Amino acid sequence: MKSGGVDALPVPDPEWRAGWSSLVELGLTGLCVPEALGGLGLQVEVAVGAATELGAALHGSPYAGLVASTRALAAASEQGSPGNARATDSLGAILSGERICAYGRLDPTGSTARSVDGAAVAEALVLEDPATGALFLLDDPTAWSSTEVAAPFDVTRSSSDVTIDAAAGHSLGTDPTAGLLFGLLLAADALGGTERVLARTVAYAGDRVAFGKQIGGFQAVQHRLADHAVRVRGMSLLVREAGRSLAAGAPDAARRVALAEASVSGAATHILHDLLQLTGAIGFTWEYGLHFFQRRAHHDARLAANPRQALQAVAAIEGWDR
Amino acid sequence: MTADVETFRAEVRAFVADHGHPMAGEGVRVPRDPTDEAATRAWLAALYDAGYLGGGWPVERGGRTDHHPMHDLIVMEELIVGDAYRPLDQVMLASHALLSFGSDAQQDDLLPRIRSGEHIWCQLFSEPDAGSDLASLRTRAEPDGDGWRVTGQKIWSTDAQWADMGTLLARTDPTVDRHAGITAFVIPMDLPGIEVRPIREMTGYEEFCEVFLDDVRVGPEHVLGEVDGGWRVITAGLASERAFVGANAIQLQRLFDDLVALARLARLPDGTRAMEHEDVRATLADALVRVEEVKLIVRDTVDRILEDAEHPSDGPVAKLAYTELDVALTEAALELIASSVSFDEGGAEVAARWHHNFLWSRALTISGGASEIMRGLVGRQLLGLPRA
Hints:
The structure holds 2 protein chains of 2 kinds. By secondary structure, chain A is α+β, with helices and mostly antiparallel strands. Helix content of chain A is 49%, strand content 16%. Chain A has 9 helices and 13 strands. In chain A, the strands form 5 sheets. Chain A has a 4-stranded mixed sheet with strand order 5-7-8-11, covered by helices on one side. In chain B, a hairpin with a 2-residue loop joins strand 2 (140-144) and strand 3.
């Protein structure tokens, strides 16, 4: 990670892949893969922690999608049929760090996936057809073409629109956990960034002096920071609770994930925007870097079509639409 | 342990279902007539007899030998779930203060009367010019022989109109700064010179009172704790409420269930049910997200309390989160009611509860340390920011 100083916010690093192997050594790619397949088991809570830290660091990898993909590949691999050898091969290459895998959702045409995080650098794709829940693996980069989104709002990662040769896709069956992991880890990413900026803004408010005192000593500033700290604690507890629930395979896992997604996608961008206000003009500069987190939190939500998608999921799970 | 706790919960639930004295409405604690008052006192006595209140007292004072801190939380939760009258101000705060600071003579005399329902208590703390800033209180206790003569005005004293005893804060040493120089007294409310005037609140109920003290003679036997040591009594009393923060999780769930009920029963001008509309469901989903956040905050806090590992900011965080969400839920309910023209069977009662809860919710964000005080505590104790 690049950093502009002890107390400064991190900056995006387009060369993140150069350091990927050290994160792989820490086990980051194997956190949702069974040990029999070379992973560390279903360590969702650890994966949530990792995604939170990567979000706080503005890391460029498509981590949420990569973990969701490993889960889908592992599930297919465990089915053991000969056709799933490709899933096993790809999984091994992703676990070892040799390949990056992106995760996306097909649009109704079945041949295009919009705004796929990391597709530009990926050597493999796992795509979900939201209509059926069916998952497909594309392990040959010549089987798809991708167009990087021009002038992306989130400048910390790359997104691409992907068009696939549908015949080249290998069916992975269905695995709802993959999609849940994707949404939860995106929420964790935005949570990590929000926690990072909150801590930075609290430190700033304790340092910055105006009218003869630290601005954190003015109620107009202090009380808003207190409100944000309370809300962020609630978001954080919901995200962690969803991780526990998913790891345990609890019946309420889908509900817990939807609540966590709705919480973070509904609140993070508002909180960050207010933290910018509390940081004043310096926060408005490119160099200060607060905007990177705003852009990223917005894009985390967008990758999962949240908050609307999550709110609808909550309503459906609660049975309110019946 | 879990099995024991669940057995205890089942016992309490059955007891509340069989004997519970009903709550007239959220925050309504003052009996409406002598019959209601007798029943309320009998209910409190029954809770002590059963070991559901006072379980954590010393065993020789009537506490349980098998008491666990979770018991207190479970009792409070079951009182909420069973819509039964739940005491706090009336007996619990005073009990805690007496057990922590009372002399043997005070404990011998007063604790049994709490257990029997004979004594209801009130707090004579706030003053017209000393609310959230309690340390600025001005009620004076002037030396008079071996005792004092107390003159001043108290306000926002819940239950003072039917209380038999009061915990009084008065300034015994006007020469020292704020927190120093305040003494706590435990006094009978029928001492000569005490006049109680109930205040009608915006809910239509009379829960709070003004209490005028005019040259009220108190003796050394009335002092609770040390002379000039009243601030310790106050802070310990506030801390005693901490375990009950957990009960707020149940309260939030019940409020939320009532919001869902409202959306199912409310009819919009076009004749459809509110719940049929996606925007209403999205509002509910958003509210549920907030409810689940705060339930986890509360649970997190209780976990730390039970482990004796709480942070000074935990109480303020939980109170701020709970009370502000309570207000937000009532506002969402009122928007739904305002958007509706009629209710299906049972909906009018639900709407009436929400109208009351809407008005009552502001009592929560103002009393027991206003939200602005809580934000300051969170800012200083959790975030390490300077005093505002």
